[in-house]
Amino acid sequence: MHNNSSIGHCPNHRGRLTDHIKNLLTHRYLVILASFLTNGIIFGVINSFGVLYVHLLTFFKNGTKDAAFSTSLVGSILIGTTFSCSALSSIITDKFGIRSTTFIGGFLATLGMFTSSFSSSIYELYITYGLLLGFGVSLCYAPSLVILGHYFTSNLGLVNGIVTAGSSVFTMILPICLKMLINRFSLFFALRLFSLLISVLMICALTFKEKHEFTNHSSTSTEYRIKDSEQFPTTTNNNNNHHSKKTHSTVGTKISSNSPSSTANRKQNLINYTIWRNPLYLLWVISVPIALVGYFVPHFHLVKHASDILPGSNGELLVTCIGATSGIGRLVFGQISDIQSVNPVVLQQIALLAIGGSTMLFTIAKSYVLLLILCAIFGLFDGCFVSLMGPVAYSLVGKEGASQAIGFVLGLSSIPFMLGPPLAGYLYDLNGDYFYAFLLGGLPPFIGALIMIPIVSIQRRRANRSLKQLEAKSGEITATTGTINGFDGDCSAMATEIDPLTSSLISDNIKSHFHDNHKLYQHNQQNSHPNDLHHNNHPNHHHQHQQQISCYKPNNHLHNGSNHHWINNSNDADESNNCPENVSLLNKPSQPTVILCENQFKST
């Protein structure tokens, strides 16, 4: 066991992982599967409403002119409740934990779907299918995304893409299954069978163990040494949104358990107000709800639109096409967002432009093939937009604020979600077709994309400012001594000043600034005597106002989700046994890299 003084040191010995850590690694894949199923069931049911809408319209039609409006309002209430309660869901998650919140949500959602099968009027469905089912799935959705940050510190965009692809897979399957069940049995018996499907959410909830549950088995602190290539940062506790005194795990880090003080702090800070002082988040939280006014118009009304212009056509296949290409988009763009030079905000802007354009083009599509092509484009960039919600939130507010950042933006999007489909239904009742419904539904994504433009310019200004601060503090690299002169030794403060959003943008400037000094340093190391190098890298060798330099080759596993960036040691790490406790990677691993750490400055 290591004492506190050993924190930040990497042992040369790499033994086998303990059974405890092996279980932790295995559980990560169970979390992916459970989150995949959770997202799939929730949005598979929501996106299948277009099929349900046609049958409800026939079942409850009473000859009034607003039949389309009142029937589409059932699905709109479901969507509105799901997303309006996202902020509340995030707060409940922070207070009671991810697993408990998800389990309760699964139970309420199952109850809502089951009671909907006994509804005798459209107004009863507003309560059971709209409110009760919506609130239940809302308690499940946000936790299913937040739990990913507890287990994955790298490739988060790809993991988000895999998980959110679940909704695409289920969107491909459920509309067809729902139509088959309705035709074979009845409308309401199909809803009862769907309630069994939704009950799977409670089973998924059981796998959502937060990482501290693996490490905190008693009131005393416990230490774990983890193999260098398998490091993961611990989460603080149930609350992801507040800074914690707990140390993020590196090799040999001491992990403390839940304490009364941390529990009291969690209760006192249910809402993270710091994200609302972030101008970048404010721009994003304004643009996304505006962009999503017409988001669900194709999902709800495309089946009916296809049957109107092409009688006898298979409208369910159009929804399936959206789901299939959406899954492809989530996987592809999720992986693209992990590339350090790619700005997820820009990708989300492109997605909104494509979604808006394809929605408008539905008005002129008169053939089934053209409808399929437009659905493929819509679905591809729908997957792009959805898979970037997590990465954008993490890049703007960091890991500590991501849970509530996503919750609030989805909560504010609830009203636009509710307005779009009923307005489209109203325009259909008024005009007898969906021309104006799809035309107006495609405008909001364009407006949202325009509002996001200042975010990128602010990012670049922050990058330039942080570069100047770094230049002022770093001093000059003295190649002859292998030390950094003029550095005050306060690396942790320096690292925290460079936020996760800026660090990815500053890399190109850092490269040009330090490249020449790095080559000169490499030349000196090659011509220095081995004893001199050993002397300079010795842990007990210190100079006033100087920090040691040693060679370090990080692998590609990094995560820009918080103010501290995590780098997993590889087998190519240096032999100095010095490992940074808090590090900030300011360049790509494949290029000359500058690493700011608490106890040393490394240039590779």
* Distance, first to last CA: 31 Å
CATH topology descriptor of the largest domain: Growth Hormone, Chain: A
Kindly report the oligomeric state of this protein.
single chain
Give the low-pLDDT segments: 1-14, 215-268, 476-525, 527-604
Please state the structural category: mainly alpha
Number of strands: 10
Strand content range: under 5%
Q: How many domains would you count in the coordinates? A: 2
Helix content: 55-70%
The whole-number mean of residue pLDDT values reads 71
In the CATH hierarchy, the architecture of the largest domain is Up-down Bundle
Describe the global form. globular
Task: Report on this structure.
This protein is mainly alpha-helical. Helix content is 64%, strand content 4%. The chain folds into two domains: 19-215 and 268-451, Growth Hormone, Chain: A (Up-down Bundle), CATH 1.20.1250; 465-603, no CATH class. It contains 27 helices and ten strands. The protein has a three-stranded antiparallel beta sheet, with helices on one face. The chain has a three-stranded antiparallel beta sheet with strand order 8-9-10. Strands 1-2 form a two-stranded antiparallel sheet. Helix 1 runs antiparallel to helix 6, helix 3 runs parallel beside helix 6 and helix 16 (344-361) runs antiparallel to helix 21.
Task: Looking at this protein, list some descriptive labels.
MFS_dom, 10 strands, single chain, 64% helix, globular, mainly alpha, 4% strand, disordered C terminus, 2 domains, Growth Hormone, Chain: A, 604 residues, three-stranded antiparallel beta sheet
